[in-house]
Amino acid sequence: MEMQKAGKIQFLKPRLGGTTAVAGFTTRHEGVSRPPYNSLNLGSNTLDSPHNVEGNRSLLARSFGTTLDRVLTVTQVHGTDLLVIDSPNQELSHFLKLECDGIVTNQPGIMIAVCVADCVPILLHDPVKGVVAALHAGWQGTVGNIAGKGVEAMTKMFDCNPKEILAAIGPSIGRCCYEVDAPVRDAFQKAGIPWDLFTTANGEGKWQLDLAAVNRKLLTDAGLADGQVQSTELCVCCNQELFFSYRRDDGDTGRQAGFIMLEAQQ
Ligand SMILES: [Zn+2]
Predict the structure, then answer these.
(1) What is this structure's pTM?
(2) Where are the domains of the chain?
(3) Helices 211-221/146-158 angle, 10° precision
(4) Do residues 120 and 191 make contact, with C-beta atoms less than 8 angstroms apart?
(5) For residue range 239-262, what is the model confidence (pLDDT) as tens digits?
(6) How far is the CA of 204 from the centre of ligand 1 (A)?
(7) Ligand 1 centroid to 210 CA: how many Å?
(8) How far apart are CA 116 and CA 41, in angstroms?
(9) pLDDT beyond 70 at 51
């Protein structure tokens, strides 16, 4: 995944379907928010000035040739519910307060996005059927298999074939920095996720967990081949200059976004 620029926005660009969709993972650069939200804070669920967040979202939209009213986010609650948009001309601001953790659409011209600051952002694109998804996977969403549910929504509602879905896993907290305890282990084991494969023991009752790698496994369990899943392998906590990290900054930080938008048909 390459670092690129669109307008002023610096972002990581996954290889997702060539010219039929634009997609990326933002960095913290070139926004208008002040510390500790400096500077491209895209999360409205922060103590940052709503005016600045709106300015940043507007900058993101403009950088990819769209407008603020075409940027769609939801209120993320560490669950696995998905919002599906399958008809045109929706008033997107109505969905801002809807509590769910992923968005799926076959509608062009809507920039769907998830906001994160440690959790795993996942983007899906079926370039054959013209369907995209943006998913938010913290440890709870991972235990609930939001990745698999995203693939399932695409196959059930839009007749996508998992063998044609491309996935990109964005920057998130790495195994290096993500210490978890026994309740997290218990939840993963109860969900049937092979704990030892994705963790390193770190003293009594503590483990370092590779959340991105678990989500890669969930995507391949859902029918994607390993080669269909790209991953940045970047730890947001280790890369302070590029990314927000909730743990590193004790919760007082901004949010980067994973975003994807189907291009309007010519
Ligand atoms: Zn790290």
Answers:
(1) 0.97
(2) 2-172+225-262
(3) 30
(4) no
(5) 999 999 999 999 999 999 999 999
(6) 21
(7) 10
(8) 10
(9) yes
